Amino acid sequence: MRKRAAKDGYGDRPSLTPTPLTVGTLVIMDLDNMEEYMEKHGLDEYRPNRVTGLLSNLVEAFARKWRGVVVYGLSWERGTEEAVIEIPLVDPHEIKEDLEEIRKKVKSEGASITIVAVREHLTARPARTRREAYSSYRRRAARILRKLKARGGDIVYIEE
Predict the structure, then answer these.
(1) Close Cβ partners of 144 (under 8 Å, ≥ 6 residues apart)
(2) Domain 20-158 class in CATH
(3) Sequence-ordered strand ranges (E) for 33-131
(4) DSSP code at position 3
(5) Are 28 and 84 a contacting pair, CB within 8 Å?
């Protein structure tokens, strides 16, 4: 029996066709305590502000430099509070300096960010939903991010 092709944003392909994976780096970043920051400064959560606008620019520049794919989170309309980026064929240690620079720039605006970079098998395709962005092989990195944020965040974690 032949499976019906699914329209999933990547053209017509059979819905059970496995997605090819490649080894690379999965990066998940999330601004720390953004609700408190916005309340303190009287900012609208539905519009970009200094920090979320800066992070939008930093995420886009980082992804371009490393030829990565922004899987989820880049938002010019609301500003970026979180992002999931996949960089095929790059080791997490190669991007450490750039991730530290992102953390420093966010810190200079009075906010903090937690960033996790792990070696993983990647699809390098944008997610359609937030749930999809944090599912499957990305769960492990998301768990690491949650644990670091629970300890206070403001760190760049590079998996050994």
Answers:
(1) 116, 118, 157, 159
(2) alpha beta
(3) 69-72, 82-88, 112-122
(4) P
(5) yes
